[in-house]
Amino acid sequence: MDEPGHMKHCAAAISFGSVMHERHAPARNRFAYRIFTLRLPLSQLNSLQVAGLGINRRGLFSFYERDHGARDGSPLLPWIREQLRSQGLAEICDGEVVLQTLPRLFGYVFNPVSFWFCHDRAGQLRAVLAEVSNTFGGHHNYLVAHPDGAVIQADDVLQARKLLHVSPFFPVRGEYVFRFQSRVQHDFVAIDYYDNGVRMLSTRMGGQRIPLSARSLFAAWLRCPMLTFGVIARIHWQALRLLLKRVPFLGAHLKPAEQVE
Which Pfam families match (predicted)? Predict the structure, then answer.
């Protein structure tokens, strides 16, 4: 018998697809590249066994709890439950939490953004925590949900005020607009950054979801052999392109921000 659709949404998987960034102002700049991410149900993390993937241990690919949440190596599920409780979302987010993120490759990782998809017991999406990191060592968590706690449907608009410096070419102001789509075999996230009502940057992440296994992990690696190394290399290459286009460089603002908005 096939699993119900909402159970497949919460199964361990690889999401293989692409990321696109398009800067609209003050100079246009667009690029896209292949990528894959892991989708890890946190309630199954301790029992997950996939050859080639180390959970809190070394491997060709690895996932460490210290890379997320409190970043002290403590279990992630109690941490996200506390974040939800503090925002009054614990009762409706009483189902599986799936963390979608880049794994470490040969021990190295840089995650521009990881997503914590928080479901109710029926498997419906109720809240999403976007865990954003910059290249200066800063982190901030944007927790978004409908004010009335309604189920997050495809293309519903969720907003958060920008609080973390990410690009040295944009100021720390304005807001992010998030949209999420999650089907049994496909994921899609759209993030638009607005400053004073003007769309400055668009980011799109989409991927085909396949069950996580040693075979699927190795196949994804063959298609994205650089993965996390490629992510950081592309960030710096695009920064050079912007400098050559004479986009004003604002520098790094390292003022700490509160963990969750």
Answer: DUF1365
